[in-house]
Structures are given as structure tokens and as C-alpha cells.
């Protein structure tokens, strides 16, 4: 199988690293060679965080270049727009519609852009945008946005439900399993 590329983008503290570990676990269980590369930005200060997940028969490098991502999974709307140049022409974006103001917006030096979903679609990108934060809160915690996104992403993979559940069991701490499985189901069924 030709190597596939996934970028997971967000703002520090949103759970993108757990999402990348879960996805890596799922893909390994399906027999793929998997490389995960965590690229930390200013995560402690709410800055951009990017993780690359590459999988296929043989993966030699963990890095994804511009125009190579088959999927961009985004925890925040502006982060999806910021990284769209990395998406392949026929690539898929799965994004949370949540908006987190970056420092220039907080300080009044800039405004949060309007119509980002429409602007991304206008580039030809396929965009699946849902309110993951509301679904995470429905599951029991705003911190479960990552599992809501993984549930939504599951629509784009051939992996069986049991494999997703096993990956959740292997990566989520036991005391948070029930909540996270509920968040995954809500994302999947949204």
C-alpha cells in the first residue's frame, strides 16, 4: 500500500498527542508500518501543535511536506485553515468548529477570520466540520474533543469498530475509558 499521511493540528492542551497515539495504535493493529512524529509549538501558551502520522507498507520518514497530507484532523477552525497548504488536492479535512482566539486577537491587534469553512471549501478541499466541543461536553468533559474527532474520522477508514475500541482501550487511562468511548460514539454518529 502506498504511504498515507495524516496531520493532526490544534492548540496546546487540546489532546492532539493522545489522538495521534490512538491513531498510531489503530493503524499498527491493522498491520501497517506507522511513523508518528510529534512537533510541539508553544503548546504551554496555547500555541499551534502539529503531529504527523504516516502509515503504509513501508514508511521511511515521519515528516509530511506541503501538498502531501491525505487528511488534516483539526481541533480548532483556524488551525485547519493555517495548515491547508499541506493537504493533497483530493484530501479530506475533519475539523472541530470551535474557535480559540490566538494572542493577536486577544490583544486586539487582529480579528478572528469569518467564514473559514467556506473559504477552505472554496480551495477545493473536502471539509467535514462539526461542533466537537458540544459533543465532548455531552459525553461528560470538554477534554474529550479528541475522541469526538477520532469518532468522526472513523468514517474515512476501513478499520472495524472493534479495532477502534481496542485502540481506545490501549491508549486511554482506565478511569476515563467510559467517557471517552461515549465521546467517540457521539463523534461517529454525529
List the helices and strands and how they pair.
Elements: E1 4-11, H1 16-29, E2 33-39, E3 48-56, E4 69-74, H2 77-82, E5 87-96, H3 103-106, H4 116-122, E6 126-130, H5 132-139, H6 145-153, H7 161-171, H8 177-188
Parallel strand pairs: 1-4, 4-5, 5-6
Antiparallel strand pairs: 1-3, 2-3
Helix pairs in contact: 1-6, 1-7, 5-6, 5-8, 6-8
Name of the CATH first level: Alpha Beta
Radius of gyration: 16 Å
Number of strands: 6
Work out the helix count.
Answer: 8
Percent range for β-strand residues: 15-25%
Topology-level CATH name: Pyruvate-ferredoxin Oxidoreductase, domain 3
- What's the pLDDT, averaged over the residues? 92
Poorly predicted runs? none
Oligomeric assembly: single chain
Amino acid at each position: 500500500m502506498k504511504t498515507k499521511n495524516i496531520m493532526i493540528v490544534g492548540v496546546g492542551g487540546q489532546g492532539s498527542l493522545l489522538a495521534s497515539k490512538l491513531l498510531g495504535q489503530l493503524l499498527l493493529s491493522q498491520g501497517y508500518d506507522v511513523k508518528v512524529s510529534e512537533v510541539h509549538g508553544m503548546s504551554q501558551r496555547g500555541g499551534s501543535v502539529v503531529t504527523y502520522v504516516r502509515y503504509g507498507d513501508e514508511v521511511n520518514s515521519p515528516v509530511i511536506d506541503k501538498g502531501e497530507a491525505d487528511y488534516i484532523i483539526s481541533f480548532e477552525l483556524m488551525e485547519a485553515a493555517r495548515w491547508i497548504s499541506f493537504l493533497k488536492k483530493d484530501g479530506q479535512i475533519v475539523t472541530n468548529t470551535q474557535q480559540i482566539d490566538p494572542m493577536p486577537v486577544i490583544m486586539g491587534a487582529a480579528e478572528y477570520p469569518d467564514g473559514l469553512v467556506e473559504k477552505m471549501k472554496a480551495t477545493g478541499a473536502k471539509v467535514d466540520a462539526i461542533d466537537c466541543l458540544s459533543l465532548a461536553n455531552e459525553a461528560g468533559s470538554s477534554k474529550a474533543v479528541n475522541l469526538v474527532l477520532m469518532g468522526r474520522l472513523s468514517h474515512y477508514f476501513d478499520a472495524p469498530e472493534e479495532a477502534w475500541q481496542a485502540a481506545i482501550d490501549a491508549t486511554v487511562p482506565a478511569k476515563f475509558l467510559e467517557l471517552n468511548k461515549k465521546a467517540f460514539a457521539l463523534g461517529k454518529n454525529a
